[in-house]
Amino acid sequence: MQDITFRQAEEKDFDRIHEIALKGWLFAYNYLPKEALKNLVSDYYSKENLKSSLRKVKHGTDLFIVAADKNKVAGFCHVGVKNSEGEIYRLYIDLSFIGKGIGKRLLLKGELFLREKGCKKCLTFVNKFNKLGADFYIRNGYVHIPELDKEDEFKNGKVLWCVEKRL
What we know:
alpha+beta; 5 helices; 7 strands
């Protein structure tokens, strides 16, 4: 595997974070309208939203890290403490780096942060049609909690699976 380093996300990473997220969404949700996906990613990964995430890091409730291959961001993970439970807000890998163990290492670093904050469990939401993402969480010990599933932004029904893991 490449020489991957992990560090705190910085403002200089925002464009690359946006790019990775957009490619991931277009790949995972290729059955949805491209323009609508681009608009959602532009909103969710706007500089202001990402700056807000960094402010939470400074307050100590969140961890927002990137995995870098040399100086190129290969993936990122943003987790936080919410009501004394852990939640994964974002975990994405550049498509060209999938299968190299980077996602698992990011996940483990996020889970360690949450355990150190006293969280006993961690949850996240993954679209059931995102087979790559859903399989990743299941392989890493997460269990689907159907009663917590949510509807997606496109009103396709309860397709956002809630998956949870005891830490």
